[in-house]
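Internal tracking record. Fields below are filled automatically when a chain is submitted to the structure queue. Please do not edit lines marked as system-generated. If the sequence contains nonstandard residues, flag them in the REMARKS field before resubmitting.
Queue: standard
Priority: normal
Entity type: single polypeptide chain
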Amino acid sequence: MSDTIAAIATGQMVAAIGIIRLSGDQAIHYAAQLFHPYSGASLLDEPDRKLVFGELRNREGALLDICLCTISRNPNSYTGEDTAEFQCHGSPMLLRTLLQELFALGARQAGPGEFTKRAFLNGRMDLSCAEAVIDLIDAESEEAVRNAAGQLSGAIHRKASAVYEMLKNLSAHFHAVLDYPDEDIEPFELEDYCSDLEEALRVLEGLLATFRCGKLMNSGIPTAIIGLPNAGKSSLLNALLGYDRAIVTDVPGTTRDTVEERVKLGGVTLRLIDTAGIRETEDRVEKLGVERSVAAAEQASLVLAVIDGSLAEETGREKILEQAKRAEHAIIILSKADLPRRCKLDGLPVSSRTGEGIPELEDRIAELFPLPQVPAGEILTNARQADAIRRAEESMQAALEALRSGMTPDIVLTETEEAMQALGELTGASIREDITNRIFSRFCVGK
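SYSTEM-GENERATED OUTPUT FOLLOWS
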């Protein structure tokens, strides 16, 4: 028996549509007490996954809304339990009133991610698919959407499960021969599994290799725009965003703090950080801004070093170039390309006023951060999953080394069983409850 949970699945703002979801043994019965189909039939007699038009009334019979309702019976529902979903007009007060009516009937407030957690616990999806749900909700680029959707359809699960099944068959064969020596079982020869272990290792290595790009694809590439005061940093930020986000004046030191925005450029999402101009100053507030600028540059994956291309020399320019050299990736931008060029440095001429050089900047970024050429869903974006695959890969590597050095099968199998344990954590086949709770706490209520 599962208790019945209910939650508002849409936002708390006024909207055209508002959705309330229920899941649990009494979900359909509670919904039927409040929703009355215009067909005259009971909601209990309606088929699964059919949108039913009718009246929503409170327990005293007062009309609350004219809306839609759909039900799904276990196990063929999102959670694997009986579920119901009201699609009402999007008044926050209406949704809260309906929720209170459901609580009065016996439902309780769902916790964060509890619907998806029940789907996992009831075997409707594995843990990698469940985590893809929150990635899909949080996706901020088309590539992230496609990859999360691919993971939701089981792309990571299929790859990990294929390796897990191979290891399980190897272990089962070994133990069968060991435990039943008198049975007519094919002799266990560890060498017969060598190619399978090598192929499994390649699969894990291929998955793990996508993680760095996947992490940046999901969270965005930390990109610091650095330069001297009045070099054109804030103008560049505004040009890339397409609107005036930062204040631009000809007064040096206007930007006193970091300003962060997201923008898609070169096919990837950048977390652009406009920083204070880096220079020596006695102004305490500006000095703090400069310190934050240096820190942002040191932590960034990409630095856009803005040099005023209209000036032949500038005091402090060497410090900007040195900061760029220390960065993981850096692009030297010669700003104010619409003015006569006097700077002799090599760099990309860009005019924030005319847009000159922006397409070339996109191309440079795309070259620096190419997405892996793998099917959608096979780019690893989750640190927990990457850690599980890394541990499985290390165990597989150790198993192969033990096999090649002629160690006994039990030594090899000890390592393969470690790999199976790690892969079980990836899919949720073997996972501690505290980790499961932490994963679903990232979800919003109603999902």
